[in-house]
Amino acid sequence: MKGIVFFSAITLTLCFPRFPIPTMNRILLAASLLASSILPASAATALNGSGATFPVPLYMRWASDFQKTNPNITVNYTGGGSGKGVKDFIANLTDFSGSDVAMSDAEITNAGGNVLMLPATAGTIVLAYNIPGVQAGLKLSRNAYVGILLGLIKNWNDPAIAKENTGVTLPNTPITFVARADGSGTTAVFTGHLAAVSPEFKDKVGTGKSVTWPVGIAGKGNDGVTALIKQTPGAIGYVEFGYAENNKLTMASLQNKAGNFVTPTLESGAASLSSVTLPENLRAFITDPEGVNDYPIVTFTWLLVKKTYTDAAKAAAVKAFVAYGLTAGQAVAPQLGYITLPANVVSKVQAALATVK
Amino acid sequence: MGGNSPLTGSVSPMSAEYRRRPDIFRAICLFASILTILLLAFIFGEILIKAWPAISKFGLGFITGIQWSPNRDIFAVLPVLIGTAASSLLALLLALPLGLAIALFLSEDFLPPAIRHTIRFVVELLAAIPSVVYGLWGIFVVIPLVQKYGTILSAKFGFIPLFAGPAYGNSLLTASLVLALMVLPTITAISRSSLVSVPYALREGSYALGATRWETILSVIIPTAAPGIVASSILAFGRAMGETMAVAMLIGNSQRLSWSLLSPSNTLSALLANQFAEADGIQVSALMYAAALLVMLTLGVNIAGEAVLRHTQKATAGLR
User: Is A183 within 8 Å of B278 when comparing Cβ atoms?
Assistant: First the structure.
């Protein structure tokens, strides 16, 4: 098609001398048209992805770094949410997708089984708060944070909170819990942890990307929640660690399964990951890690890629991009607030990636 | 209009010839208006089709139930319906007296015309501010105010369910206050033009009978302009119900039943805006069901408004 257009354009320029273009320009034009139709167009491959908003900053960084060494491959990743990523992937709108929640068995069937779920990075979810006069590092026991979310603890000076925080003056301020108004992988991971910790929570609220909270207000996206926490004295809400850190929110230390209070850091998150053994399908939910220094709420985020691509160039490009992310890409992760994958996880993911055709 | 003006009095042979031709302009207009109706029918039909799984599954329980739990496939919108109606009504209640007062002030000659035009321009400029800017303004100005004075209010008058604590900044009251400002230009502009169009002879007659200016305004001008004022309120109410962005930023997005104005709430449009992107399965149908309800509500308000308008027109017909 392209060729025909070029050919007729050349014919037009050379054979219709009355067409008002100066002769010299005419020859140049013909030459350039010829050149562009004969020379192979640079083999540019564009990969399009969508999905989870949580790893957007990281994937964008990977895409721009990757393109510097692979100028022929352009990677586009847009957010929109884990659910959108999975939907787009099933509808074949994307070459790869991102999701904070691994696909369910039903979703895998809908995708014709042609999907590999590759953990690409990991992050922690933190409880960030805005209590006038209280610095970072407020200790929240499991009873305390579940109680706040269930609406059983209504004030910051409640004995259940004060018990673990001797020396901290807690104000008599009502607690405003801030949740996500939109469906979100963050909510799914967070409620997954809470349900594992508290049977009462599992019974009353349950788990999922969008749940009904017994108390509080809600904002759209990590940024919406972050803004609400910042502007509301007495607020506490859940956001991804990266967002909390970039926005300088004060984060609570949470009690883990072993009973220790752990500050959310990249190290404590990495500790939680090290205790996970990935199954064959690389789908692991860490609802309540057991290590002594493990931060309790941590999750992988997955890249969804096809097992078999119809376009060999796309397959090669996807493999190259993910391989980059698993090696050099892991090194930049901590700068952006993401946890570097443990070496044993990386080698498993690399083995799975090698099977992509 | 007299029937014997040179323009309408005689029919020239040219225009008689012209009238025999098919009227293309009329055909285009007819086509456009039918297309508009079809478009509305198509949109509503499409919403109903997409909503059908939820309509057949939840039925009327969708409207009377109070729980919206996507993770358990339980969907009902009573708290959201109440939030929609309450925030819009409250906004109208706040905006109508203010808007009418501004309209009166601008339609009478209290001030030199130049200043009146400036004020009118500024008020109508409020309509040009994007919704998201109102939302931001609400976040930085109204929320802290509502939180501060709401806490005091709930401490003093908390025994009245409307002011029960704890007072949230993101609340029904905050959303209503900002909505009131957003619908103010609608009320002012339409009320003003209907006040201005009250025949001057009526005023003169009223003054001639010895009425003072305020007696004239209250018992002659406002009743005469009532249809326009009612129309402005209905349009404002419709706008408040459909308003999305600013409300989603301010209302707290929580679908729990509460009497308190200081509690977070939710509206249909905010619910749709927040949850559509990530919804799947029956949740999409449930959201479509909610969208159908929103369309029916706005349609109902407009029909009711039309009825009120006709009624008041009849009632004040003698004054014209």
Answer: yes
* Residue B296 · residue B81 · CB < 8 Å: no
Option in A80, A154, A231 nearest B277 (CB)? A80
Distances (CA, A) of B176 to B73, B198, B241, B246, B273: 31, 32, 11, 10, 18
A24, A56, A75, B136 from A95: Cα distances, Å: 46, 16, 10, 37
Residue B174: CB atoms within 10 Å: 30
Give pLDDT tens digits for B164-220: 878 898 999 999 999 999 999 999 998 998 898 888 888 899 999 999 988 999 989
Q: Report how far residue A258's alpha carbon sits from residue B24's, in angstroms, rounded to the nearest whole number.
A: 82
Question: Which of A244, A245, A299, A243 lies closest to A269 in space, CA to CA?
Answer: A299
Q: Are A116 and A307 in contact (CB under 8 A)?
A: yes
Q: Which residues contact B60 (CB under 8 A, 6 or more apart)?
A: none
Cβ separation B264–A217 shorter than 8 A? yes
Residue closest to A258 by CA, chosen among A299, A297, A298, A291: A291
| Contact of B276 with B269, CB cutoff 8 Å | no
Instruction: Return d(Cα A154, Cα A142) in angstroms, integer.
Output: 16
Establish whether this prediction's ipTM goes over 0.85: no
Neighboring chain B residues of A191 at a CB cutoff of 8 Å: 71
pTM of the shown model: 0.81
Give which of A156, A212, A232 to mutate to test B binding, by max B Cβ within 10 Å.
A212
CA within 13 Å, CB half, B282? 16
What φ, ψ does residue A48 adopt, rounded to 5°?
Answer: -115, 130
Distance from CA of B207 to the nearest CA of A (A): 55
Question: What is the C-alpha end-to-end distance of chain B, expressed in Å?
Answer: 18
Q: Which residues contact A337 (CB under 8 A, 6 or more apart)?
A: A123, A240, A241, A242, A243, A245, A246, A266
Tokens read off for A140:
């929240």
Per-residue pLDDT tens for B129-162? 999 999 999 999 999 999 889 989 988 888 888 8
